[in-house]
Design a protein that fits this description.
single chain, 48% helix, 191 residues
């Protein structure tokens, strides 16, 4: 819990009552590789903060193909935010791809924090700004960069990810085949 409290305190002043509230609505837990936190098609009530390890958000299209939307590593948040904020069933599956320690929050209780402790508004606004910027960059990168360039950016953003996840997850995230990823790696090793 200390990791999350320190992360919050790095962005905003946190009263002892606000800190107590965060602790009271949080549930620290360990999850194992392969555990599924959210399944595509189910109602979503929770959001997760990753203390360590790695989680993945993906969807399966009508043809059965997986599309990885996000990896969540230390100090990242993950959930199906479309489902939460639009009150819809999940379009994503969130799975643990490495043994991880997470902090789980009921999304409604977490949302109540803003009316009880307004100092969290600035913290959340910054989180949302970073999230929107990250999504826009990802979309632009998919549209404008070559596969090798996207792979290089991926390695910079997730430097240790290859120890956690199989190649097909990475290829899915990059929007390429596993064979293309293998070719990119071979070319990269020659340089």
């Amino acid at each position: 819990m200390e990791d999350l409290i320190n992360k919050i305190k790095s962005s905003t002043t946190l009263s002892s009552k606000a800190e107590e509230y965060v602790v009271s609505i949080a549930k620290e837990t360990s999850v194992s590789k392969g555990d599924v936190l959210i399944r595509q098609g189910q109602a979503v009530k929770n959001t997760y903060f990753v203390k360590d390890g790695c989680l993945r958000a993906y969807c399966i299209d009508k043809n059965g193909k997986e599309h990885t939307l996000q990896f969540a590593i230390k100090n990242w948040w993950i959930s199906d935010f479309i489902a939460i904020y639009n009150n819809e069933l999940s379009t994503l599956t969130i799975e643990c791809i490495a043994d991880s320690n997470i902090i789980e929050f009921n999304a409604k209780l977490l949302d109540e924090i803003y009316s009880k402790f307004p100092e969290f508004e600035a913290f959340q606004r910054k989180n949302l700004e970073r999230h929107v910027v990250s999504l826009h960059k990802r979309i632009l990168n998919q549209l404008q960069l070559t596969a090798p360039e996207r792979y290089e950016l991926f390695l910079n953003q997730y430097p240790d990810i290859e120890q956690y996840t199989p190649n097909y997850h990475i290829a899915s995230y990059l929007g390429i085949t596993q064979q293309s990823l293998s070719r990119i790696r071979v070319e990269k090793s020659k340089k």
